[in-house]
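Ticket opened by: R.M.
Priority: normal
Category: complex prediction / small molecule

The reporter submitted a protein together with 2-acetamido-2-deoxy-beta-D-glucopyranose and asked that the result be attached to this ticket for the collaborator who will pick it up next week. Submitted input follows.
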Amino acid sequence: MEILLYLTFALFCWPIVTCNDEQSLEPGAEGFLKREHTLVRPFQGTVLVYAELWDFTGSTIVTGTHIRLTPDHQSKAGAIWNRIPCMLRNWEVLIHFKVHGNGVDLYGDGFAFWLTKGRNEMGKVFGSKDPFSGLAIFFDTYSNQNGEHAHVHPYVSAVVNNGSMSYDHDYDGTHIQIAGCSAPFRGREHDTFASIRFVNNRLTAKLDIDGNGEWRQCFDADEVFLPLGYFFGISAATGDLADNHDILTFKVFELPADETSDISDTALLNLVPHAKTAEAPRDKPVGVFQRKSMSTIFMFLILLIVCGGIVFFLVKRQQTNAKKRFY
Ligand SMILES: *[C@@H]1O[C@H](CO)[C@@H](O)[C@H](O)[C@H]1NC(C)=O
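Result attached by the on-call engineer:
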């Protein structure tokens, strides 16, 4: 009888509990690696090769295993900038990164991924120039502005700028953000990865930060317009608070287009970066991560009740049967 109960649970409940609604393709699975935009280990010994393709600026140091943009010290800024302009219409960037340090509650500031018109200029936005023209994705570990906006840090957010808007770091730049999510990527024991995709003017970010090899969506923004001929880069900065900001791999893939486009390369080279899905200022619901895990917990509770019900029913019947036999 006990075995029957377990079987019932296994047959009816387990497949539902473990069911995964995410069925999109694994990041990096279907593209062509573009070596001219890529940085992979080992870095030492290949420094001369990489020096043709990349600039290593500011506090950046290159070791055999990682590129450290900033050490865990105050007031540092470092960056890596690709020298080859990106001529890909549809691409994916895969970043293996590690943000860590001695700080337990106080650490910062984070790092930024860039695809911009200018390159290799130091400044106050995570160590890079402000304002910028192009795309930035901020991996912000420190909330500079407590109170008005409700999202939990660390926070990942995308900004598209045409070069006219200044990024307000004291307000975490939320007034020009197009999408974002809360994501605890800092100080993890395991490897942490980000995948950023741009296909047919759709910008999506996925994160693999829980050490279980699973990608979770951070944001998905449609109608994002980015020109050709911009440069990839990553920068990081520390202020009063510090952290090690390490890049272990930076890979760029060319992706096939979902649909053909009749816009010429010339038109795309002259495009002004813009995005239609700009979020209303200060309208910050809880990040996707929280919402998703809340619904997962809710689903789990319902299943627990259903399974509990089945088990209760079976036990009850067993007792009744036992009683019948007894008498
Ligand atoms: C740049 O963006 C700002 C703010 O959205 C807008 O007012 C301005 O017209 C834009 N400039 C160009 C050249 O598109």
